[in-house]
Amino acid sequence: MLGVLETSDALRRARDAGLDLVEVNPKAFPPVCKIMDFGKFKYEEKKRQGEARKRQALIELKEIKIRPKTDDHDIDFKVRHIERFLEEGNKVKITCRFRGREITHPEMAMRQLQVLVERTREVAIVEVEPRMEGRTMTLILAPSNKGKPKRRVEVSGDAVESSAEG
To answer: Among 30, 48, 73, 95, which residue's beta carbon has the most beta carbons within 10 A?
Structure first.
C-alpha cells in the first residue's frame, strides 16, 4: 500500500514497474487504484470463472413418454430408465399422451403414473403432481436425498449391509 498519490506519480510508478494502473473503486474519495498486470488479472479471472462453471452441478430434465395403454413389460423398461436418470442426478418428466378417444379416460393414465411413482419411490420424490396439460398428463420426479438404496447381503452367515450397485 503506497497511500495517497497524485495520478501522474502513480502512473509513473506503474510504468517504471512495467505494470498497469487499474482503478479498483472509482466511487471512493479519493478513487482507489492498484498497480498490477491487467492482462494477467483478466486471464486469471476468466480461468476462475471457468473453474466455477465446471464445479457447478448441472441438472437436466429427462423425459419419459408413455401412453394410457402402455403394457406392463414396457413399464418395466421405463422404470429402469427412470431409475438410471435419477441416480445420475437428473430430474425426470413423465408424459402420458392421449390419442383419439383415450382422453375420455384420464384415470387410466393416472393409474399408470401412480404405478411408476410407487415403483421408483426409493430413489425419487414427486416434485410436481400429475396434471393435465391439453392432451397430455405430466408428472415430474426428482432424485431423493436418500442416496443409493441399501440391500442386505449374506456373507458367511452374517448379514452385512451394502449399497446397491446398478
So the answer is: 95
